[in-house]
Design a protein that fits this description.
By secondary structure, this protein is of the alpha+beta class. It is built from 3 helices and 21 strands. The strands form 4 sheets. It has a 6-stranded antiparallel beta barrel. The radius of gyration is 46 Å and the shape is rod-shaped.
Length: 363
């Protein structure tokens, strides 16, 4: 019995001994293994740039000047509409024709009235000339002489009046053809064939000279720095970049938004549409900027950070203040110096003091 017990104890000890030795050996190997890098990174040096100092702006594209083309005479029917929305027109180009039969009839009637008045004037002049010749001879009384002379003056005035009426009818005849007041593009049309127009009724709207401007809103705090002639950049549709020039700074500030309107003159190019909302910036000048790639920024807890590389290939998290952004780079206002190595990308996967492997150092 005792012999069997000894045999069992000896066998159990022999079976356990190799496992214990293996566990101790593994623990010793783990403690001597080198620390693995958590990430392979690329580092860059902050770059010194000469960047434009800009202020943000946003607003609507609007017509530089919009002309309203209306009927100057009323009671006539539209017989021809010669242009439509989007038509590019020249100054004095025909846009609409009105019915002119009644105007022509009135014109002929007035021409006849002028002819009658001139005939009456000729007769009055003849009588007045004879009265002047016999004046003082006793052939005519002084009263009759004065009557002839007054009749002459009256008929002269009558001729002038009838001629003015004739000129008015000619103008009315010209107004039956409605023309463009300037070069430009038709932005709206309310003229309809067959409509009887009234005097002053709007028929078209015209964007003068096809000029469009950007009515940009800027914060009132920037107004002391703004001047006419400054350059502006607008982010147009489909990534189109449009450059303009400040032509006018609005004299008033909105009490609701504390913003003022700056009028930016744009080049006459195809693409922008009136009514399009656009964002952009106005350039105040140029200044030096220390920049890093935007990919180097890590945004945590409402703050911006970058990771810099130490001599032992460990990273340090540094809080930075940022400013302008351009072409994938961001201006660093504080926190880093030009001689530091900054992790170019992947900072979101790093922690302060983490060991990294440097793949390549870009200068």
């Amino acid at each position: 019995m005792k012999l069997n017990y000894l045999r069992f104890a000896l066998g159990f000890a022999l079976s356990v001994w190799p496992l214990g030795v293996t566990t101790v050996a593994f623990a010793q190997d783990a403690s001597t293994m080198p620390e693995a890098a958590v990430l392979t990174v690329t580092v860059v040096k902050p770059q010194k740039r000469d960047w434009a100092q800009t202020i943000p702006a946003s607003g609507w594209l609007a017509a530089w000047h919009e002309a309203i083309i209306a009927a100057e005479t009323g009671g006539l029917r539209i017989t021809d509409v010669l242009v439509d929305v989007g038509s590019v027109v020249k100054k004095d180009q025909e846009l609409v024709r009105l019915s002119n039969q009644s105007v022509l009839a009135d014109l002929r009637k007035q021409e006849a009235a002028v002819a009658t008045a001139k005939a009456n004037l000729a007769q009055a002049k003849a009588n007045a000339d004879r009265a002047r010749q016999v004046k003082g001879s006793g052939a005519l009384s002084d009263q009759q002489v004065n009557e002839y002379l007054i009749t002459e003056e009256t008929t002269e005035a009558s001729v002038a009046s009838e001629e003015a009426g004739l000129q008015s009818q000619k103008i009315k005849l010209e107004q039956t053809t409605i023309r463009a007041v300037d070069d430009g593009i038709i932005s709206s049309r309310s003229a309809t064939l067959g409509t009887v127009v009234s005097s002053g009724s709007e028929l078209f709207r015209l964007i003068r000279q096809q000029r469009i401007e950007w009515q940009a809103e800027v914060s009132a705090q920037y107004l002391p720095e703004l001047e006419t002639g400054m350059s502006a950049v607008i982010n147009g549709p489909r990534g189109q970049i449009i450059k303009g020039t400040v032509r006018l700074i609005g004299p008033t500030i909105s009490t609701d938004s504390s913003r003022a309107i700056v009028y930016v003159e744009l080049p006459n190019i195809a693409g922008p549409r009136v009514g399009l909302y656009a964002t952009g910036s106005i350039e105040l000048g140029r200044s030096a900027a220390l920049t890093v790639p935007e990919t180097a920024l890590v945004f945590r807890d409402g703050m911006n950070y970058v990771f810099t590389l130490n001599a032992d290939n460990r990273v340090a998290r540094i809080r930075v203040d940022v400013g302008r952004r351009l072409d994938g780079e961001v201006e660093v206002l504080s926190g880093v110096e030009a001689d530091l190595d900054v992790v170019e990308a992947g900072g979101a996967f790093l922690s302060d003091g983490a060991l990294v492997k440097v793949e390549k150092a870009n200068q």
